[in-house]
Amino acid sequence: MGVYVLGISGASGVLYGVRALEVLAQAGHTIHLIVSDGARHVARHEMALDLDGRVEQVAGDVVLHAESDTAGWPASGSFRHDGMLIVPASLKTTAAIAHGYADSLLTRSAIVCLKESRRLVIVPRETPLDLITLRNWATLKEAGARLVPAMPGFYHRPSTIEDLVDHVVGKALDQLDVAHDLFTRWGPELRPKKSAASR
Ligand SMILES: Cc1cc2nc3c(=O)[nH]c(=O)nc-3n(C[C@H](O)[C@H](O)[C@H](O)COP(=O)(O)O)c2cc1C
Fold first, then answer.
1. Where are the domains of the chain?
2. Does pTM surpass 0.90?
3. Residue 1: beta bridge partners?
4. What residues are in contact with ligand 1 under a 6 Å CB criterion?
5. Partner of 86 for a Cys bridge, out of 7, 30, 71, 81, CB 3.0 to 4.6 A?
6. What CATH class does 3-197 carry?
């Protein structure tokens, strides 16, 4: 089983982060969780959700770190783990990481991933995009981060909001090489018979 750092920041779609936590915990992985105050605020606003209460309900090996604890374990490169996922990632958090501004355990842990060449998967959520943000994302990509914008696909034929959430979370977990069955992959099950026959 793996050890993962999971950051949930204050972009719309806190549900993505909750789902990632559930999936990683159910699979038996250890999760070092960092929730920003912004995420708590958004969860209250868009889901009428007490995020800490929801996190406590998740069964599994979950270690909750305070965002303000810049001495928390993931803040050090000597703390070994298998990768970090930030989902959803706000523009503020992505800007801080892109510019090396380690003002919280979340941003510090992400910057440590980059300096240690560990996998860092970021799922930003915003639209439309300004040039500053596009440049920040390019900087993150150049520094080695993997960017998976929260843009659900529809080829897996979603019928519920949960199906859309699972597509985004699944694509992010793919970047960490975490096994899951959150959506049907393109292949024999989805490929239209007509196009298969016409080959
Ligand atoms: C309801 C709500 C939705 C928000 N959605 C987004 C969003 O989708 N993307 C974003 O970058 N910021 C969004 N914000 C603004 C961030 O929460 C805000 O910039 C915050 O300071 C981010 O802090 P954090 O990155 O430390 O969590 C939203 C705020 C609220 C209240």
1. 3-197
2. yes
3. none
4. 9-12, 36, 38-39, 41-42, 45-46, 90-93, 125-126
5. 7
6. alpha beta
